[in-house]
């Protein structure tokens, strides 16, 4: 299928990251460098123009290959950034869930304390009313006791 020898493949000077391409993709990439040895195209009148066309085609193919490799690397980085962003968001969600639970616990303690203080306040208010009533009764008794003493003097 490929017309390139093993030596041609080894002499090809292009950095391809390991484990980035499937065997099928590698064959497709290498097929871009196979020179078309078929009959000359209908408008070519000399061997020189064929070589120029082949050179341009090879340069275009090399450019396409570099662009494809660049696009793959860009996509890999983009996937990595997306994964990292998703991990960051997941960590933030976990942190906020924990913080939310802590705030709920604090709110529960504050509400319980408020209920205790409200009951204590109600009890103190009732005791205050009782003490005021008792004081009022004592003042009346004292006033009643002083009235007969004033009349006798």
From TrEMBL:
GO terms for cellular component: nucleus. The keyword Nucleus applies. Residues 35-62 are annotated as: Disordered. Residues 61-110 form the BZIP domain. GO terms for molecular function: DNA-binding transcription factor activity; protein heterodimerization activity; transcription cis-regulatory region binding. One of its GO terms (biological process) is positive regulation of DNA-templated transcription. It is found in: Nucleus. InterPro entries: bZIP, bZIP_plant_GBF1, bZIP_sf. Keywords: DNA-binding, Nucleus, Transcription, Transcription regulation. Pfam families: bZIP_1. Its main location: nucleus. This is Basic leucine zipper 4. The gene is LOC111004726.
